[in-house]
Amino acid sequence: MADLQSLVDEMRSYLRSADQTYDDGLKELAASFAGVCRDANQGLRRCEEFLQKGLRSEALHFAQTHDPPLLDVIGVLDFPEREDWDLLAASYGLPQAPKLRLDCAEELNRAYAADQPIESLLRKHRYLALIHAPLVSRLEVMRRVSELDPGNSVWLDDVTQFEKVRLKEVRREIEQAVSKADEQALSAIMDELSGSPWQNGTPFELVNLVRKYHLETLASSVQRAYAKRSVKTLERLRESWIERTAQMGPGLDGGFEHLVEPAFRWLDQQYAMQNEQSQYLEAVAALEESLQADDDWQTVQRRYRSAAAYGQALPAHVLRAYRERNRDERETVASGRRDMLIILGVGSAAILGAAIFLLWLLVLKKG
After folding, report:
1. Does the pTM of the predicted model rise above 0.85?
2. Is the pLDDT of residue 142 over 60?
3. Closest Cα partner for 186 from 166, 219, 209?
4. pLDDT at residue number 210
5. How far is CA 50 from CA 53, 56, 116, 154, in A?
6. Coil, strand or helix: which one is 218?
7. Cα→Cα distances 52→42, 100, 174, 255, Å
8. Treating both helix axes as pointing N-terminal to C-terminal, what angle do 153-179 and 183-195 enclose, rounded to 10 degrees?
9. Are 207 and 190 in contact (CB under 8 A)?
10. Stretch 306-333: mean pLDDT
11. Rounded to the nearest 10 degrees, how much is the dihedral formed by the CA atoms of 121, 122, 127, 128?
């Protein structure tokens, strides 16, 4: 590398010199420069071939093991006065150095930049393997490596192999979680199965297996809540049940519907009773309002019948107010009848008197 830098320094010194006389040393300098440029371009071309094939790691390895490192060589050869040197070489008929393939150098540099996070992930992967970390953690790292270097089929092959082993582990973990009734573990497994980018697609067989076991666990929770007659707990559990059975699709409820049906039927009954009680209270409130507002007796009676139709005893103060109003209405009716009888009696007496008077007149006339 020092020789290469000395070569370029000598060329730049000549360009800055006032005496640019041609001599054999100048020709030798030009020939050496042209040679190293050709070697550098050849190395860049080789790296380009690797990159075009998606072999980024191979390209970087080749560039780094080049003596000196290839990008370091390009950095020295691409000096600011390069155009001036080319003009001088052309004017003296000196060996012409090829243009450096700077586009390849830039692509190689981008490959270096992209490889930095990959290298960091690979170090993490090696560490996880060393400490025998769970396969799910190592698989996550390898998926990230494959995403960052999609052109390298090696990573994809590794991910595929890791996934095969991982799915076998998942099946065993499902069985363990079910045996321990570990709903949290089942949820974590479900998240992994349905949320991970599996190479061969989501493993629906295992997904439905988890859902089935999850429903079984949920059914047991429903039965316990039903035994305690806990309305709020059953409400929450039924929401979960509806959500999870919808995920499985029609006819895939795991055969546990009969285990939760009595509990949910009882819950519906509680809703109906609560609704009826609410309607009853509204009817009582309407009756009480009519009594306080001194509504007409027909309105009061109609509202009384509506409240009484629920078969529950009316509140004491409402029933007392109704009975008082009923007594007042009866007294009013009775008083009206008495007045009517008096009127009828007086009228009848008057008619009788008039009849007697007429009869008397008739008798006098005949006599």
Report:
1. no
2. yes
3. 209
4. 84
5. 5, 6, 18, 14
6. helix
7. 15, 19, 44, 55
8. 160
9. yes
10. 85
11. 70
